[in-house]
Design a protein that fits this description.
Blueprint lengths: L8 H24 L6 H4 L18 H25 L1 H29 L5
Helix pairs in contact: 3-4
């Protein structure tokens, strides 16, 4: 029977494969790609409209508020699904804790609704 590999060998192999694939992809892109001298091909493409302004412009706060709403929904799903899987083993304590969690998330949604984040 051959000796077992140490626990870190698969991680090292995965790292070497990842680095090798990255190097291969960059080398092939460099070898097969051809640079263009046409300035139109090298310019930024934004749906056929020439870019206006700089990339450092400020975004309205509304974008960040929508991102926060997405995080509320994401956190809700991330906690409700595992809780539903072990609901019976948690008993009344688990039910009360999840009810408190849902009430706090509901308060976040209510705040977003009252401040007008959900209005487009």
């Amino acid at each position: 029977m051959p000796p077992a590999l140490p626990g870190y060998v698969p991680v090292v192999i995965l790292f070497l494969v990842a680095v090798g694939f990255a190097a291969f992809a960059i080398a092939m892109s460099h070898a097969l790609g051809r640079p263009s001298s046409d300035p139109a091909r090298r310019s930024t493409y934004e749906c056929g409209i020439p870019p206006v302004g700089t990339a450092g412009e400020r975004f309205p706060v509304k974008f960040y508020l929508v991102a926060m709403i997405f995080l509320l929904i994401d956190v809700d799903a991330a906690f409700l699904y595992p809780w539903a899987l072990i609901f019976r083993s948690l008993g009344l304590f688990g039910l009360v804790e999840m009810a408190l969690f849902v009430v706090l998330l509901g308060a976040g949604f209510t705040y977003a609704w009252k401040t007008g984040v959900l209005e487009w």
